[in-house]
Design a protein that fits this description.
InterPro entries: DUF7918. It contains seven helices and 19 strands. The chain is an alpha+beta fold and about 425 residues long. It has a domain at about 5-265.
Length: about 425
């Protein structure tokens, strides 16, 4: 809830009996400016709740989409808050007040500049601004004239720093043209008092030019006429005097946009997918169920029969579907062979056996011949090796030092060419 002045003043929107969630709330304590964002839903009615918990009298002035409503709202310490649900446009034939509620609606655009509304304050579309002033009451109305005046006009000529107020005053001068005279102005104010809001037509669903629409996809319009009892409306003629030299006590700015726009602008965090909780709950529910036993494949069948898993709550229907599936794919029956077929099969097996036997015999003979040839080759190689006169084979020449037998070398020392032994170390 946007608040200022230590929580003494507050403004927020109420929809379906609940305050709208506010996002990115900012406060500037030096000038008591509070701003926030809310998500709007087209077709939803809403009300503006004004709260005053201070000991002073506070007068609230409303600007809807940059347009100032001509009815102000006064709250003193005897009444903590009020709900502004719409505007009073007059009285019906039955004597009841005709009320039009505030409604969020989509913007209707056109590319024809002639049919577009010329005087709307486009920069403030999608904005609700409430300015609070500290005032004191100079005139207390009597019960006889309580229904003759709606709201308060005592502050209509006060100045403030809001740009929307200055633009409204400029549009008001342009709409009236060169109208002069105190009598004419007084007559107009009396007309405003009787209708409750002179700019009620500007809050209707008029067309705006498509080039003037920026990021505001919703606007405030007025709903259908409603007749309400006069006892439900507090309408008193008040004469108030503004304190603090006309300076605002607090300024509340509420910007409303479609939820999709706020998410795209990262004002509202993107919500989680809705199917995640559903998937987890299904997983927990399925984990408590027994596992289905796979059906066996019928022997002799060329195709695999897929049995449907019975659904929860429909076991009889699932069993019926399984029986129907099996009946469509029956198990093939075994057909015995005749004697003629058996004789032909036996003759074919004998022919295969005889051919195999001949092939095995040829393979055995070839393997034996190859083995004999290998043995003869080995014998010839042994005969070609040199031998001594005694017939002993001469060993091959030693190739490495590791193969030398040092013991044999010491037993038979090397000799010279003439047969003499080599002198040992230390001998001359």
């Amino acid at each position: 809830m946007p608040q200022a002045q230590s929580g003494e003043l507050g403004v927020w929107l109420v929809c379906d009996g609940e305050p709208l969630a506010e996002h990115r709330v900012k406060r500037r304590e030096e000038d008591s400016v509070v701003s926030c964002w809310v998500a709007s839903v087209p077709g939803k009615t809403f009300s503006i709740r004004l709260e005053n918990r201070s000991a002073d009298g506070i007068q609230f002035r409303l600007f809807l989409d940059g347009i100032e409503t001509d009815v102000d709202h006064f709250i003193d310490g005897n009444e903590p808050h009020i709900d502004v649900t719409g505007i009073i446009i007059g009285r019906s034939d039955t004597g009841k007040s005709v009320h039009k509620p505030f409604v969020f609606s989509k913007i209707k655009t056109t590319d024809d500049a002639q049919t577009a509304a010329p005087d709307l304050d486009f920069p403030d579309l999608g904005t609700i601004e409430v300015v609070a002033y500290r005032v004191e009451m100079d005139y207390a109305p009597s019960s006889s004239d309580s229904d003759e005046y709606i709201g308060s006009k005592s502050m209509s000529n006060t100045t403030r720093r809001s740009g929307a107020h200055r633009r409204r005053r400029k549009n008001k001068r342009q709409s009236h043209g060169k109208q002069k005279g105190k009598a004419k102005q007084q007559a107009k104010e009396e007309q405003d008092c009787n209708t409750g809001c002179s700019n009620k037509n500007l809050l209707s669903d008029t067309l705006v030019h498509e080039s003037s629409v920026k990021s505001s996809y919703h606007r405030i319009s007025l709903g259908e006429d409603e007749e309400i009892d006069n006892d439900d409306i507090v309408t008193k003629p008040l004469k108030l005097r503004c304190l603090d030299e006309g300076e605002a006590r607090a300024i509340f700015t509420i910007r409303y946009r479609p939820k999709e726009v706020l998410i795209a602008s990262k004002i509202i965090p993107r919500p989680l997918p809705e199917d995640i909780p559903e998937a987890s709950s299904n997983h927990q529910r399925n984990s408590t169920e027994p596992a289905a036993v796979p059906s066996k494949r019928p022997s002799g069948s060329g195709e695999h029969v897929r049995h449907k898993r019975p659904r929860r709550g429909q076991p009889e229907a699932a069993v019926a579907d399984t029986r129907e599936t099996i009946s469509k794919d029956p198990i093939p029956q075994h057909t015995p062979k005749s004697e003629t077929d058996s004789d032909l099969e036996l003759a074919r097996l004998r022919a295969i056996t005889s051919d195999t036997g001949e092939a095995d015999r040829d393979s055995t003979i070839a393997r034996d011949n190859s083995q004999e040839t290998s043995e003869e080759t080995a014998i010839e190689r042994e005969l070609e090796r040199p031998s001594t006169p005694d017939g002993d084979l001469i060993q091959p020449k030693i190739e490495t030092f590791a193969d030398l037998n040092l013991g044999e070398l010491e037993a038979s020392p090397p000799t010279l060419s003439n047969g003499d032994e080599l002198p040992k170390k230390g001998q001359n």
